[in-house]
Amino acid sequence: MRITEIRERTVSLSAPMRNASISFGAMTASAVAVTTDVIRNGKPVIGLSFDSPGRYGHGGLLRERFIPRILEADPEDLLTLDGNNLDPHRVWNVLMRNEKAGGHGERCGAVGLLDCAVWDAVAKIEEKPLWRVLSERYCGLSDQIRVPVYASGGHYRDHDDLAHLHDSISRSRDLGFTKFKIKFGGLPLEDDLRRVETAISAVQSSSDLAIDCNGTWSGSQLEEMAARLSPYQLGWIEEPVHPLDYELSRAFASQYKGPIATGENIFSADDTLNLLRYGGLRPDRDILQMDVSLSYGLVEYLRIVELAEQHGWSRSNCIPHAGFLLAFNVVAGLELGRHETSMSGSFALYLPTTDGYVRPDEAPGVGYERSPIFRAIFSEL
Ligand SMILES: [Mg+2]
C-alpha cells in the first residue's frame, strides 16, 4: 500500500469573541486529507485531520516541508512490517527527519495534522473507530464506553456579556452538560468575579465551574488572586500564568490549594518534562492539558502521557485541550479524564451528551464523516 496524495486547505474559524489574551476575529485552521490506495467499501481510504483551535492554520509548513517529505519518502518506510497498514510511529520518524531538537515553533502543529490524519487512515483500514484502535493498543481492550465531557466557552462579549454568559451555560445544561469552563482575567477583577458569580448561579455546584486565565497573571497579582478565588472552590484555575514561566507557576501553586490546570501551550514531550520538573504542579490534584494535534500529534501525545505517568500523574488528570472529534477519540481510547467541547455548539460533537457523558459510536476512524460541519469542510477539500 502507499499514500497517493495529500491535500490541505485553510478554513476560517473567525468568531466575534475574545479571551484574556487574544481575539478570534482572524482565527484560521488547517484541514488535511491523506489519500491511500487501500480500498474499503469501494473507495480509497482517506485519512482526515483538522487543527485544534487557537494557533492558526499550518498551510505554509505543510506545503513547503512536511507534505513533500512524506510523498518523497520510500513508501516502505511508512508501513507496518506486514505492509498492510501505515505505521504512525514510522510516519512520524519520517516527518521529523532532519529536524533539530527543541525550538518547536509551529512545526509541531503541522506534523500533528499529518500524524492525526494517518491515525484516521489506520483506523479506517482496520475498519474500527480510532478510540477502539487506541484502547486495544494502549489500554488492553478495556470497555470504557462513556466519556466524561465538559462545555468550554464563556468568552467575553462586547454587548450583554453577563446575560449571554448565563444563557450559554443554561443552554449547555439543557444539552446534557454538567461541567463548564469560562474565561477569566480579561476585565478588572471585580467585573471578572461578577462573571464567576453569574456562572455559578447557572451551575449546580461551584466545583462544576472552571476558569481559564489564558496565561495573563503577573507575579504581583498571584497572592490577591489566590485569596480572592480560593473561597469559590472552583473545579480548576487554568493557565494562571505564562505557559513557559515555570517559576511563576510554582509560586502560584504554593499559594493556591485548589486544582490548577495548564499545558495547552506546551507542545512537546521535552517541554512537558520541564513543566513537570519545575512548574510546582501537584499530581494528586492538578490537570495536564497538552493538545493532541498541536503537540506533534498522537505519537508524541503517547510519550507525553507516559512521561506524566512516570512522574506520578494518573490518566484521569490528563484532560487534553480542545481538539474536536480527534481529542474525543483519544480521551475515550486512552481513558483520560475528560473531553473539552465547545459551549457555543459550533464544531460540537455530533453525539448526544447525557448527564455529562458521551458514548462514542462505531464510525470508522475519527468520525468526521458523520459530523455535518466536518463533512462540509472535507467535501470541499
Ligand atoms: Mg485554555
Write up what this structure looks like.
This protein is of the alpha/beta class and 381 residues long. The protein has 2 domains: 3-127, Enolase-like, N-terminal domain (Enolase-like, domain 1, 2-Layer Sandwich), CATH 3.30.390.10; 137-380, TIM Barrel (Alpha-Beta Barrel), CATH 3.20.20. It has 12 helices and 12 strands. Strands 4, 5, 6, 7, 8, 9, 10, 11 and 12 form a 9-stranded mixed sheet that branches. Strands 1-2-3 form a 3-stranded antiparallel sheet. Strand 6, helix 7 (222-229) and strand 7 form a beta-alpha-beta unit. Helix 1 crosses helix 3 (107-125), helix 4 (130-138) runs parallel beside helix 11 (324-334) and helix 5 (161-174) runs parallel beside helix 6. The radius of gyration is 20 Å and the shape is globular. The relative contact order is 0.15. The mean pLDDT is 95. Bound molecules: magnesium ion.
* Continuous helix count: 12
List cofactors, ions and other ligands.
Answer: magnesium ion
Overall pLDDT, averaged? 95
The SSE string, one letter per element, is EEEHHHHEHEHEHEHEHEHHEEEH
Helix and strand composition category: alpha/beta
CATH hierarchy, class of the largest domain: Alpha Beta
Biggest pleated-sheet summary: 9 strands, mixed
CATH topology of the largest domain: TIM Barrel
